[in-house]
Amino acid sequence: MQQLLGDLMQMMGTGMAGGGARVELARTLAHGVAAAGEPEANVDPVERIALEELVRLAEMHVTELTCLQVSPVEVMAVPAGSWAWHTVEDWRFLLEAATETAPAGGATPGAPGSEALDLGGLLGSGTFPGGAEDEGRDPTGELVARWMTTMGPMLAAMQLGSAIGHLARATLGPYELPVPRRAGDRLLIVPANIARFAEDWSLPIDQVRLWVCLREVTTHAVLCRPHVSDRIRELLVQLAEAGAPDTAGMMQRLEGMDPSDPETLQRLVGDPEALIESTPSPRQARAAEELAAVTAALLGFVEHVLDEASRRLLGGRGALAEAWRRRQVAREPGDRAAEALVGFDLGPTQLERGVGFVGGVLDRAGEDGLARLWDRASTLPTPTEIDAPGLWLERISFDGDQPA
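Above: the chain sequence. Below: its structure as tokens.
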């Protein structure tokens, strides 16, 4: 057991230490999960051309309705596996934040000089790291603890890859989760998922395609505002860093376990959350609240634009809106894994908060007031203001008069 764990630690501390290796692991797993291990055919060029035309139409109407500058984007119509592959690269900043931040109270696992790779102290005859000797104690328990903390970055990469892979099976476009993309000049759209959504809810495929393009272009227009994307990235990184395992605390809990005791191992496997601190830190809670406020405002804003654009182009979107709402409520846990992992809450309550905020702004200040929402970083709503749009309007010094 000691030899096996030592070999595994050596491998993880060297072969998997680099950030590029972890991203590659996440990409490979994400693609495999999304494609279900099967080869994927290229998207029919006819579908790609149709989507390109609809995106151009959506860009024109979103620009007119929002006064946001919507730059022309490249439309990438891709299968689910390719969507997952590109998404891991776009989201790699989350993986880096979770795995390359030195945990409080201990050295970064696998870093030069860290005890996680000091195998001599672990495998010697009763000599443990720090110089403490206890010849009557089997070092295997200590070795298990070191191994668990060393493999943390590898497990984080696998977790992100798996979550993105499952998300790719259902996503319609790039912003199923509103994470700003590294490549801000393209839209990743999955035609097969759009067709399945239309079929599942008995909706005309052409209307669904246009609705998806309107939704994704609107979200893209907001997230391409540098101060908006920077703020969301900042909050996501704070959540990822604050949620990184406390290596020292994890080791203290593991050191008390006897790996030769079946009941101990059963508790370890049956309740893995016992190894980590599940209570959110004040920093986590604050970042989560601020992210929820910005996200709710974005959800409400997108709903408003979709309502207006759909009245113009689709004669309304009653059936589409209801199908989307039911889809969000009925999603499987695997489809929600990425949402929970990243730190978003995109459930019905958040949507209602956002719609209520946007509606309150429109009632008090009209479209001119709503246009201030994405002006600059200081006009993004706070957790208190998202439930009290009047406070937001007062803070940004808008006079609140309705347009004539």
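Residues 2-346 form one domain.
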